[in-house]
Amino acid sequence: INGGVHAGNKLDFQEFMIIPAGFSDFIDALRASVEVYQALRVILKEEFGPSAVNVGDEGGYAPPLEKTHDALNLLVKAVQRAGYEPGGQIALGIDAAISRLYREDKDVYVIEGRELAREDMISYYESLISEYPLISIEDPLHEEDFEGFTELTRQLGSKCLIIGDDLFTTNYRRVSYGIEKKSANAVLVKVNQAGTLTETLDVVKLAVENNYRAIISHRSGETEDTAIADLAVALQTGLIKTGAPARGERTCKYNRLLEIYSELEKPRYPGFKVFPRKP
Length: 279
Fold this sequence. Notes:
Elements: E1 15-19, H1 26-48, H2 68-81, E2 91-95, E3 102-103, E4 108-111, E5 114-116, H3 118-131, E6 134-138, H4 146-156, E7 161-164, H5 172-181, E8 186-189, H6 191-194, H7 197-209, E9 213-217, H8 227-234, E10 240-241, H9 248-263
Parallel strand pairs: 2-6, 6-7, 7-8, 8-9, 9-10
Antiparallel strand pairs: 1-2, 3-4, 4-5
Helix pairs in contact: 1-2, 3-4, 5-7, 8-9
């Protein structure tokens, strides 16, 4: 599900994702993801009508929702409708992309009409993790709050991936500083943000050597180039973020991953091993 500036609805957070980590085989995991995506389409049409299945920038549906809980509840419902177990086979992730909701003059975040301080946001995420099979949160605090990321990671990092995207911008110096401060425990890696493959490899190497997860990522404005699929496998990150299984610029990456998987003699799908816990 898409929200924020990537969709035409009133959801504050930008992306609500499913993570098929409870499978031992990539093909089964991808098939389950597609089935959940199609189950969600049926549910949205039932509850909101045909216009609710229009998609946002990353191919996620953009239904007329306003609250985070409503989006997460729909994902859980879709997982169950498709015949899978929430948490056991398919977990959830959020990209809050929250910098745009931060009000610097008041040092608060405006979430669903409420003004929340940093400690309130941490408590909010903690409540979401306890209520849902949530194992990944991206950009949960604004992009310059390294200290806040440090505190959030200290409290929740054993339960959830705390991913820095806007925090790090695939920038070696920012990632190095974040590691020094123990801000986040994962880095979103965008090749064209780094600028060169060499710089991208340097960021991934830095992250992995310091026990941070590296997630190879698409962009919201994407092409049909499939290189990031090869890169994710070559670097053995175990994690890739490339949108919903819809539209050619997203599905081509999944198709390329399937090709690579079929060519390998002994392919391994890491599942929950690349996350702090199984919910």
